[in-house]
């Protein structure tokens, strides 16, 4: 029918042009509808509580760094009051990178498949449990092992603390704010590592004689020593416990706050790039391995 109508010689020019104009208008309407749909799909919106999400995560990173570096800042006091050796102090610090190397692949998978919430909340839970284990009212010869376990759990929590900042800023912030958000979420962890050297010496005194007194190692709150040297060690242990209780309290508050409110993502993406699907973990790793720049940075 359309071919016959177009080839009719009796149709006037104005009518012919009118029919063509009518068809063009319909096509424009269809294109406009498609554009409207695309605009609706790409609608972006920011929420004020994105800064709460960023700051609560940043404080989690600050605390994780502070807990990780607790013992080097008070090494002499810990050796005298708890019975740690120099090797113990070094191992307590090394649990952080050891746990990071073991569990980082697991958290990479969690981030790709489950999103932010599970990774962040699980990390906060590990810090709370780890700091809680260090506060158990046990003799020193038993407490030492629980402290090691607590430091290992805190080391696992370092995986989301170090890996999440770029993803968090991409999911919650527009492009103009991502550098700021990533910087805050990342740097607070380093601030916490440094803050340990302020908090520890501020609350914990050094022993007058750093030589370990074996007879004082297993004292408890219910077994106050009479020896003056042991009384000094007992006082230092109480000061260390005060710091440990303080860190445990902060870890519990942050964990509960994240458990109550830490969404996977905002209801509406803050930008077009945030709304796009991410590359799978397998494809991402394969693409990364093929990049010479990455290989140079990673292995040279």
TrEMBL record:
GO cellular component terms, A-Z = membrane
Q: Where in or outside the cell is it found?
A: Membrane
* Transmembrane intervals: 49-71, 91-110, 116-133, 145-164, 184-204, 243-262
Keyword terms: Membrane, Transmembrane, Transmembrane helix
Concerning InterPro entries, the annotation shows: FLVCR1-2_SLC49-like, MFS, MFS_trans_sf
Alphabetized Pfam families for the sequence: MFS_1
Q: Which SUPFAM superfamilies does the record match to this protein?
A: MFS general substrate transporter
Top-rank taxon of the source lineage equals Eukaryota
- Official protein name in the record: Major facilitator superfamily (MFS) profile domain-containing protein
């Amino acid at each position: 029918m359309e071919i016959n109508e177009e080839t009719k010689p009796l149709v006037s020019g104005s009518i012919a042009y009118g029919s063509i104009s009518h068809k063009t208008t319909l096509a424009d309407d269809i294109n406009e509808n498609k554009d409207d749909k695309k605009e609706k799909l790409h609608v972006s919106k920011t929420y004020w509580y994105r800064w709460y999400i960023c700051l609560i995560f940043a404080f989690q990173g600050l605390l994780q760094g502070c807990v990780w570096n607790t013992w080097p800042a008070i090494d002499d006091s810990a050796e005298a009051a708890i019975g740690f050796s120099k090797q113990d102090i070094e191992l307590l610090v090394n649990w952080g990178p050891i746990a990071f190397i073991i569990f980082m692949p697991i958290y990479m998978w969690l981030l790709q498949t489950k999103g932010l919430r599970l990774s962040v909340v699980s990390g906060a839970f590990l810090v709370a449990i780890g700091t809680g284990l260090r506060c158990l009212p046990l003799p020193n010869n038993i407490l030492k092992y629980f402290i090691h376990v607590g430091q290992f759990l805190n080391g696992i929590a370092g995986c989301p603390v170090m890996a999440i900042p770029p993803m968090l800023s991409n999911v919650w912030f527009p492009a103009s704010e991502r550098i700021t958000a990533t910087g805050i979420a990342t740097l607070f962890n380093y601030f916490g590592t440094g803050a340990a050297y302020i908090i520890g010496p501020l609350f914990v005194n050094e022993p007058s004689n750093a030589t370990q007194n074996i007879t004082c190692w297993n004292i408890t709150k219910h077994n106050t020593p009479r020896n003056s040297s042991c009384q000094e060690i007992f006082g230092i242990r109480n000061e260390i416990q005060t710091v440990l209780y303080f860190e445990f309290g902060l870890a519990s508050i942050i964990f509960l706050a994240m458990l109550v409110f830490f969404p996977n993502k905002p209801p509406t993406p803050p930008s077009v790039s945030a709304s796009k699907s991410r590359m799978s973990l397998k494809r991402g790793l394969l693409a990364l391995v093929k990049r010479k720049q990455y290989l140079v940075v990673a292995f040279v």
